[in-house]
What we know:
Layout: E1 2-7, E2 17-22, H1 34-55, H2 74-96, E3 102-108, H3 118-134, E4 137-143, E5 152-155, E6 157-163, H4 164-177, H5 183-186, E7 216-222, H6 232-237, E8 243-248, E9 255-262, E10 266-270, H7 281-285, E11 288-292, H8 294-301, E12 308-312, H9 315-325, E13 330-340, E14 353-357, H10 363-369, H11 372-377, E15 390-393, H12 405-419
Protein name: Putative methyltransferase
Keywords: Methyltransferase, Transferase
Family: Belongs to the class IV-like SAM-binding methyltransferase superfamily.
Amino acid sequence: MGRKRKSVGDGGSGDDAEQNVADADTAPVSVPKKKERKRNRKKKDAPAQVDAAEDSGGNDVEEGGNGVSRGNDVDGLEEQRGRREGAQQQNAGRAAQAPRRTISIAFPSSIVNAVVKHEMQTLLCGQLARAAAQFRVREIILFEEFDEDVNMIDFTRPNTAASEASAFIKLLLEYIETPPYLRKFFFPVSDDLRYVGLLIPLEAPHHLKINELLRFREGVVVPQGFRQGDSIQDAMNGSTSKTSKFVELGLRFPMRLRSAMPMGTRVTADFGENDLFSMPSSRFNNLVLTAASREDAEQATGAYWGYKVKVVTSLSRLLDEARRSSAYDLIIGTSDEAETIMNTSSVPRSFDHALVVFGGLRGLRHAAASDAVLVKRGMIDERVPELFDMWVNTIPRQGTQSVRTEEAIPITLATLAHNFET
């Protein structure tokens, strides 16, 4: 049955139209049977159960454990055992192939001044950090390039100063390199860090999550009884001792070190050659760890373990310290005016410690010309290549008028990796 309703236009001036409307009183109503209602309820509840399983990670966490997810079924244990054995084989292969050489890079901190907005300066530092990590750079050195008066600030130790640009880049690079669970201990809230949320995660091997285990793990020495959420500074102020045997590792609670260390110190903790995946929680909780170094972690696992950052006051200071300390057996200068690296004669096919130096927006010749010491020595203009063991151009036939430093770094490191023996 249907009924007719007249539709009248606005103001009553429109044409009449008829529209058939279903009669709600006479429309048939389908009532589901009891079994169908049960099935519908099950279907409706199913997505919520799946979401809950996904949120929980699909694994039960052993009560009183260390925060590491462990399956409680046979299939789950077999799967984890297979992953563990695969990881052990992979780490053994990495350790066997771990390169004995190291690469350090140096560039002027003035490159950040070419970027006006703070968020873009932050992203620039993120780009530099990821390039360094991708090519396993051991050390990043910033040197000053004085084109004009710059605002100098106290830095690192008494009677030492650096530009605001150096301080900013160093802060950002160290922040990015630090595992996320440790950043709150070393980096208080700062205006310079207000855009770090824009950064792409570094995802380096030592940036472990709470449910990831490796023989080595980065931590910070904390007072006994320290708990998650506590302020380490308040805890240190309330402690009668300046040293501690406890280290916060981003797990559910701090663990014990074999030897006491100054509180607030960042440390690479070594769990030893233990099978951490199958170890009972009661035994894991009572492990005594050894303080190691980043080099120890890299040598044992073959994994890249981050970079260090330092600042020097000038290009001449950088080169003088490099020669005097014999820390590097190969120092490379880069320039678009140099000979292409593939055509360079007497290229060393192996080295232990290389330092690759990049110029700023106007190149290394300009950096040398702005260095009073190098000017006094006459090491400017055509003599600048004499400062380096190699003077190379890694971007021949470039299609742009200039190549920015943050662009030249990954290109150069990739070229060196291709041309030098590992």
